[in-house]
Amino acid sequence: MRSIGVTTFMTLDGVVQGLGRPDEDARGGFAHGGWGPRYNDEVMGQELGKGMAQAGDLLFGRRTWQDFANVWGRATDGNPFSALMNKATKYVVSTTLNDAGGWENSILLRGDAAATVAELKASPGPDLAINGSAALVRSLHAAGLIDDYTLLIHPLTLGSGARLFEQPAPLAEFELIDCVATTKGVLIARYKRAES
Question: Is 16:9 a contact under the CB 8 Å cutoff?
Fold first, then answer.
């Protein structure tokens, strides 16, 4: 059985919306887009590189997949992350997309997210990594399908914006397996689902 790991950037108050660019995600009038890049440093790059080196297939919600396809799918900068993202098999979970032809090596998973991903998780193949895709993460967490989290907790609060868990999440216990502090105060905390 494959495992599912989540990597997400968040603020101290749990906001995950609009990390990279001012225009990335302005839903709900969110005016703080682009809050994350000023916290990037060499430590974060090294830690993310370790995670990317271990990643198998990628799993996305529709919105994040479309954004990543526009940014990473067109990248010609020689960045190793770009090459890795484009080469990887990418599963996109959606009830509204008609096809996933907009980004190479993408496969559309239609239907209920939890049921579709549970079937994928039970199939043979490499582990699955989710970057962002908060709505998908919430759904899969509620179904007990997330095995581990890497949370990049940034030292700021925004007071508004979509949060990782907007409604109460079901009871689930995780163990801290690693934590690294960057030079700019970001905590990179890795949690694994506790054995029951």
Answer: yes
* pLDDT single digits (tens) 74-103: 767 766 677 778 889 999 999 999 888 889
pLDDT in tens, 162-174: 999 987 788 899 9
Encoding tokens for residue 179? Answer: 């934590």
CA dist 41 and 35 (Å) reads: 14
φ/ψ of residue 64, rounded to 5? -65, -40
- Give the contacts of 116 (CB within 8 A, at least 6 positions apart): 93, 109, 110
CATH of region 4-193: 3.40.430.10
Q: Assign 3-class secondary structure to 31-97.
A: CCCCCCHHHCCHHHHHHHHHHHHHCCEEEEEHHHHHHHHHHCCCCCCCCHHHHHHHHCCEEEEECCC
What are the domain boundaries of the chain? 4-193
The helix (run of H) or strand (run of E) holding residue 136 is: helix 134-142
In 3D space, the residue among 182, 149, 152 whose CA is nearest the CA of residue 19 turns out to be 152
Cβ contact 58:2 at 8 Å: no
Question: Among residues 149, 180, 36, which one has the least CA distance to residue 188?
Answer: 180
